[in-house]
Design brief:
The protein is of the alpha+beta class. The protein is built from three helices and five strands. It has a three-stranded antiparallel beta sheet with strand order 2-1-5, with no helix packed on it. Strands 3-4 form a two-stranded antiparallel ribbon. A hairpin with a 6-residue loop joins strand 3 and strand 4. The two termini are 55 Å apart. The C terminus is likely disordered.
Length: 141
Amino acid sequence: MSDLKSKVAYLQGLSNGMELDVNSKEGRLLSNIIEVLDDFAETVSDLESSQEELEDYVETIDDDLFALESDFNGGDDHDYIEVNCPRCGEAVLFEPDIIDDEDVIEVTCPNCDEVVFINDDNFGSADEPEGIENNFPAEDL
C-alpha cells in the first residue's frame, strides 16, 4: 500500500514542480484529481489495516472454536470396538465406522502386526467382527 501512497506523493511533487497556477482551470482540475487520489490511497490503506485485524480476529476465533470442539468431543460420545489379537492377545481398539466403510480396511495389532479385523465379507461378518469383547466409551480407555 505504501507504493500507492508514494505514487500519489510523487504526483503531488510533479504538480508542485510544474508551478501550475491553481487559479487556472487546468491547475484546479489537476490539484483536485491529486487530492482525490490521496483520499483513495488513504482509504485503501485503512481498509488493508482493518482487513488484517479482521483476519487476526477470525483466526483467533477459529483457534478457540477448535479448542472447544476438541473439549466437547473429548471422548464421552465416542464408542470403540475392542478385538483381542489371536496371536499375542493384545486388545486392539478401533472405531465402529470402519465396519460400514466402503473401502476394504484392515485393522492390525500394534504389538505384533497381526490382522485382527477386515471389513470385508470374506474375513467374517461385516456386521459383527470376530473376537469382539465389548463396546465401551473412550473415557474408559
